[in-house]
Specification:
By secondary structure, this protein is mostly helical. It has helices at 2-22, 28-58, 61-88. Helix 1 runs antiparallel to helix 2 and helix 2 (28-58) packs antiparallel against helix 3. The chain crosses the membrane at residues 6-25, 32-57, 63-88.
Amino acid sequence: MTNSILLVSILLFGFIFLGFILSLKKSTKTKFIVWGIMIILITPFLSWVIGIIFGIIEGDGFAAVAVIAVLFPLFFIIGLVILIIGIVKKDV
């Protein structure tokens, strides 16, 4: 279990680093689009890691599933809103 959490955490940091590299020296509109897509891609992994760690701390698998079920749509909607802002925003 620890190896999978470590692997997914490395994958998360890779996505964040990729988003940072892709948004360097870009317009605000492009940054919103890149980070909206990155948050949407990170969402399943991030919610899984947070849920599993919470489940291990609590000692209950149902708590982990509940946290994943709450965080996944929340993070997805946040990423979608950022992406839509980037698409709709006018470049100055």
